[in-house]
Each structure stands twice: as structure tokens, then as C-alpha cells.
Amino acid sequence: MSTQQQPAIPACSAQAIIDWIFGEGRLIESSSEFVYRLAHQMNDNGAPIDRLMVALQTLNPQLAATSETWEKSTDRIAPDHAAHGVRDTERYIGSPLQVIFETRKRVHQPLDNLPEDAHRAYTELADNGYTDYLALPVLFGEAAEPGAAIIISTRRESGFSNADIESFRRIRDYVAPVLEVHSLRYLSRSLMNTYVGKRTGEKVLAGMIKRGDADIINAALWFSDLRDFTHLTETLSATEVLEMLNEYFEFVSAAVTAQGGEILRFIGDAMLIVFPIEDDKCVRTACKAAIDAAIDAQSTLQSINHRRRRRGLPEIRFGVGLNVGEVIYGNVGAPDRLDFTVMGPAVNRTARLESLTKELDCDILFSQKFADSVDTPAEFLGQHQMKGIAEPQAVYALCRV
């Protein structure tokens, strides 16, 4: 790398970037859009950058971190997600991100004349014509823990000067509170999606948080639970029970989310799932999605039970009740401890239908209203009394082959 030092970003240019951060920049909700606009602001004000990456550590059941990378050559943002366990891989071990998150120290690495054992984070950029690399930790909260990293790379022949690095450090300090807001926003959405579901989480974050706040909605409804669960909890170890529950929840979740359903609640070994109906024309669509999901889940169960038998484990069996109707969708509970759920006669009847799957030895049962809303061939199983419901109810099943 040339020893000739390029001029730093003029102070007024750095200030222009900072002014943008606390003006327009802080109002941008999308992390991708923020990184894209920040990269352009830095370039427009003289910063010698050809690649800008912002990595955020996350609290998510599936992801350890997420990042957005802008490259000048494409003028596009490339998002990336790192799953849990990434810290045990060569992608992370020995990387500049490991240094940042474990030592809080910045990393400055010229990319010419790299040692043979240089980490791929450097060699891949060097092979693509980059000449210099700077990674800066971004500290969050009172404990000043590294919550993010800003990584800047250049193709400029002389790389970064000391004055460039000082300008980037100054800009980093002003970007930090904006990135912390992005991190907290991501955290809140992630936790809402994880614990109450995407649609419900959006309602909560939009302000639907007071006890009694509720909507009246129409939905196709699913209620399922495991067969012989009490017996299984008495005969299996706690670890085996948890593994079985997670396996059951996982394949059912895959089936219903693929059809647009949302798991609203786990109730022990039971699941309450909704397929919301936006207008009257969507009734058949929602009901078809629900029954297709139930058929898919039961089909997947056959291969899962084959594997479980080979491992000497008890089979998983579950019943599904399907219904459609109007429900109350909202907050109930104590003043300081709320649950966001669905309530109403349609929910009760869905649960009662599931209970009948044991008596009628049929894995999927549905109401007459549901049967009238799908084209799937159905078999009428007669009128059946349901607990808490005065009149016997018509019950249907899939036609037996």
C-alpha cells in the first residue's frame, strides 16, 4: 500500500453526515434503507468507501446476528443472517467480528501483503480488489456492550489514512444511538413474533395493549392436541417429553404457516391456530388452507412415526378439530398480566370437535359450516352432543379411502 496519505474527510463533510444521521437518518425504520442511505451520504461527502456493512447481534430463537452490506459496484444492499452456532465455525473464529465482540477493540487491516493464514474475511475482499479494511465496535446500553459492528472497506490504492479512520470513528459514535434503536425495534418484533405470532405481534406493537382491547374477526379455526399425552408424560423422561413436543409442534407449524395460518397459543400439548378471513369472499380460501394444512401435517406424521419406531420411541398421534366463524380477538387477563387470544362459541366448538376425534377414531373432524366451505369430499358422521352445547352438532370427516 502506498505510504502517501490521502486527505481525510473534511470536518464539514463529516459534520454533514452527522447532521443527516440526526435529521433524516434517525427517522428511517428499515435497517436496509438506513445502511443504503448512510453509504450514499458518506460517499457524497468524500468518504473513500466501496463497501459498508452493519452487523447487529440479535435475540432471536433462530438467529444470532443479522447484517446489511452495501457495495458501491452494485449499489445494492445484501442482507445476511447468522444462525445460532455460528460462533463455533471458521466463519467466526479468528474473524474481525470475534475480535470486536470479545475485546471491544477496533480492527484495522490493510489488505495488501496479507499473511498466508489470514482470515477469509480479509482474503475474500483482497481477491476482489479491496485494499483496506476497518471494523469498528458499536457499544449499546449502560454496560457499553458491543451490540453491533460497522465494517468499512475501500478499493482506493492508498487505503485509509489515520485522519480517515478518526472521521469514521466520529461518525460511528453518532450512528450508535440510531443503530441501538434499530436493534431494539428488531428485538421487540422478534420477541412478539416468537411468543404471540406475527399478526398478533403487529397489533400489540401498534398499540392494542389495554385489557379489553379486541376486534371481532372471522377465521377458520384449528384446535389440536396429542393423544395419550398424560400416559406419555408418566412413562417418558422430561427430556423425551420435551423432544416429542417440539417435534410435534415443529411439523404442525411448518404445515400451517405454509398455508397462511398462525399459531396463536400453545396450551400444554394443544395448539390453537387461526386462518384469518379478510372478507366474505375469503371464507373458502381460509377453510381450504386449514384443511390442506391438516392433511399435510397428518401425512408428514407418517414418516416421522416411521423414524420414531426405528429409534424405539412411542409414536406421535394427534387429533384436529376444524371450524369457521366469528370470534373475539383481543386482550384478556389481569391488569398487569394479559393474554392475546381468541374467544367465543366458534372456538369452544372447535375444541369439542377435537375431543370427538378420540371417540370417533378419526384424526380430522370439522363442523357443518366448515364442510359447506370446502370442496374436499366429506363424510357425515351424524349429530353428536358436545360438552357445554345444548343442541347436538353435525360432525364431518374426510371421506375414507
Please sum up the structure shown.
The protein is α+β, with helices and mostly antiparallel strands. Helices cover 40% and strands 29% of the residues.
What would your notes on this structure say?
This protein has 401 residues and is of the alpha+beta class. The chain has two domains: 185 residues, Beta-Lactamase; 201 residues, Alpha-Beta Plaits (2-Layer Sandwich). Helix content is 40%, strand content 29%. It has eleven helices and 14 strands. Strands 7, 8, 9, 10, 11, 12, 13 and 14 form an eight-stranded mixed sheet that branches. A six-stranded antiparallel sheet has the order 3-2-1-6-5-4. A hairpin with an 8-residue loop joins β13 and β14. The longest helix has 34 residues. The protein is elongated and about 85 Å long. The chain starts with 10 loop residues before the first helix and ends with a strand. The N terminus is likely disordered.
